[in-house]
Design goal:
This protein folds into 2 domains: about 70 residues, no CATH class; about 120 residues, Immunoglobulin-like. About 15% of the residues lie in helices and about 60% in strands. It is built from 4 helices and 8 strands, in the order H-E-E-E-E-H-H-E-E-E-E-H. The strands form 3 sheets. A 3-stranded antiparallel beta sheet has the order 2-3-6, with no helix packed on it.
Length: about 200
């Protein structure tokens, strides 16, 4: 009888050891964050330089008559001078591109300008009253290439009008490859030792 009791106790102890000691490996998934480098493309304007900008005058001949009551009092050919704008650009980038130049000329008859304090004019105020002339042109420049764009406004008679000019540049863009560090996630499989008792409970 004593041996039987000892045997039962021994069996129970062994069963408890087997049931509660971690001996079974089971897989589980774990999400891991890590840093990685990725490539992306950024749009950037091409680098350029306005080497020079200035104006000159050109001219054409125009016949002018003064006729009163059918009588010609004046009939002559005069040389009319008009402004020409020049903008010289250089492509300072390493790729070619199409550069646009928008010319804007403002003109006001001298007889009208006299009412606004000519020759000391407040052009910011006068813009509302001026005749505005716009011209746009573009050029393709290779890396390092320099070229001049011009705009002639023959509608402005510089002897009869005061005028002002300006320009804006529209530069092309390029796609630049860059790298950046980003945080990503991945799932890894790990193994954990658990007891038979816990394993059996997880299967229920």
């Amino acid at each position: 009888m004593k041996k039987v009791i000892i045997g039962i106790v021994t069996f129970v102890v062994i069963a408890l050891i087997v049931a509660f000691v971690p001996i079974v490996e089971v897989p589980y998934a774990e999400t891991i964050q890590y840093e990685d480098t990725e490539t992306y493309y950024d749009t950037q304007p091409l680098t350029y330089e306005v080497v020079e900008s200035h104006t000159e005058t050109d001219s054409y001949n125009e016949r002018r008559q003064i006729v009163i009551g059918g009588v010609v009092f004046q009939d002559e050919v005069v040389e009319v001078f008009y402004p020409v704008g020049y903008v010289t650009l250089q492509n300072k980038d390493n790729v070619s591109g199409t550069f646009g130049v928008q010319f804007t000329f403002y003109a006001l008859e001298k007889s009208v300008a006299g009412m606004y304090g000519y020759p000391d004019l407040d052009w910011d105020m006068l813009m509302t009253f001026c005749d505005v002339y716009e011209k746009q042109d573009s050029i393709i420049l290779e890396p390092g290439e320099t070229e001049t764009i011009t705009a002639a406004i023959s509608d402005i008679d510089v002897d009869r009008a005061v005028w002002k000019w300006g320009y804006t540049i529209t530069e092309p863009t390029k796609s630049v490859e860059k790298e950046r560090t980003v945080t990503k996630e991945r799932t890894e499989t790990h193994y954990e030792k658990i007891t038979i008792f816990k394993y059996l409970l997880s299967r229920l």
